[in-house]
Amino acid sequence: MTAVRCINLCKTYRQGDVDIKALDHVSIDIAEGGFVCLSAPSGGGKTTLLNAIGGLDIPDSGEVYIDDQRIDNLSKGDLAELRLRKIGFVFQAYNLIPVLTARENVEFVMQVQGVLKHDSADKANAILTEVGLQGLEDRRPAEMSGGQQQRVAVARAIASKPALVLADEPTANLDSKTSDELMTLFTELNEHYNTTFVIATHDTRVMQYAKRLVRMLDGKIVDDIDQRAA
Amino acid sequence: MRLAAILFRLAWRNLWRNHRRTFIMLSAIAVGVWAMIFMTSLTRGMVDQMINDSINVLPGHVQVHHPDFLDDPSINNPLPYSDAALGEKFAGGEFGQWASRVRVPAVISSERESRAVTLLGIDPSAEQGFSFFDYADVEGRFLEDANDNGIVIGKKLAATLDTETGKRIVIMSQDPENEIADRGFRVVGLYTADPVSVEEAYAYVGKSTAQSLLRIGDASTEAVFFGDDYRNVEALYDAVSGALDDSVSVQRWYEIDSYLGTMLKTMDGFVFVWIIVIFLALSFGLVNTLVMAVFERVREIGLMLALGMKPASIVGQIIIESMLLLTLGLTIGNFLAWATILPLQGGIDISIVAEGMEMMGASSVLYPKFHVGDMVLASTIVLVLGFLASISPAWRASRYEPVEAITKV
After folding, report:
1. Do A99 and B303 touch (CB under 8 A)?
2. What is the tens place of the pLDDT at every residue in A169-198?
3. Which residues of B touch A76 (CB under 8 A)?
């Protein structure tokens, strides 16, 4: 089954007097349970594609489907609902809510979903333990290291068991050891829960974990490699 | 419900992220609310006192007259009931305190001066509860009963007439046949009043003595009634009206003295405008605080939108934050107002400007009046207008594009 389908996506940004094609007729299918790395140099279009898949950015043309539901024509409210129910996000800069503790950050999505407090707290504790943050549940982001914060962000992304996790440069601010631990965690989640991962990165070590590597350049897909076959 | 809990938690914690800004805004709200209520209580106290004093001089919350009496307050327009008939009609408890009187214009003369006064023929025992002066404070003595042959005048009038207790003066008026009705009285007492101008206006004699002087048998010119509160006289008015027929005119105090009625309405309007003006000054600070709070949290707001929080929830979060700030400020401001007004309930001596107050018909001691209604009005206005002022920053926050907001530095 196809988890993500993009058909002929185009997106142009205007920077001063110059038009920059971030996506230039991009089409891609990602199967359920896929573990895909989008690789490109800066400005290559990987983050724009990731944002289009996540409904954070609307392409100028083309179509985006999540679980066979077209999303590029949804309203803001419907897109928010889709992100809430089906997609987990991991951002480069951790992006935790500073006034909430690690546990509350993880609970956040579940609480917005309407999960009961008792259930969301139990799940948050379990997932924080799973990502190696047992004992740090009540710390606020400012009291944690970069690696710990990124783990909280990962825990938040997977807490509600989304079908799709989108990660934008998740290891950009982490040291190599922490990066490896994080990618191992992603791999385990992908295998245990059949969660589809789409990761935008230019870190070659991250690419080694992917089942499929999609290379982009100037808004176009220039290479699509099944790394399991390799 | 879960969503409301998380919005409330976020709003509360965000409120305390910048302690200094929150404390400054809380202080501004608290001082503004305190000023609203404190100034209102001072003005309210002054106006209340002026109205109560005036009603006591009128006197009465409800009055009954011959239909033509107020236009022509002469003895030719008496009440069409005898004293005995009035006693029977108003024997019930629903009429509060009441008395019938003889009120006519007259001229009072001493050996040296003459002045126009309002002659009041009263039954002292019936009026003691609502007289505007204390009988015990009268220099000399007050009237002992309705048949008392003495006269009690104000101290200021006595000074004008150059007379004193024990001396004789002459009262001259008209009887129903338009004949001169005059009689000599011995001054038995001098009363003081606040405001002093009242001391020149009224002269008191026994009611039966006045009836005899004016040759009107046992007739009266007015019946006056006192309820519990001048603001709430409708029940009393209905009771009195129900007991009488169309041959008399029943009127509320503010119909008899329309200036007083207008003053009360003006006061209520003033309170409303005063609260609005203070809030407008406050609202600039409030909106600025919210705009700054939103501006500082663009990334977080973008993050929450990206994670699936709906724009309406972002609006809710900002408005809850605003309402929490206002509620805290209101609580502190209301407490401060109550705590500062309470010790001043015994009165503030402003005799240094007594002459000016006298000209306004007000007393030289100001009694702040703490009205729960004013507190509720101020709080309601602040919350409602605060809610409206919060909509714009909240709406702006909810309109952020998540993809742009989360990359904001």
Report:
1. no
2. 888 877 888 788 889 988 988 998 889 999
3. 311
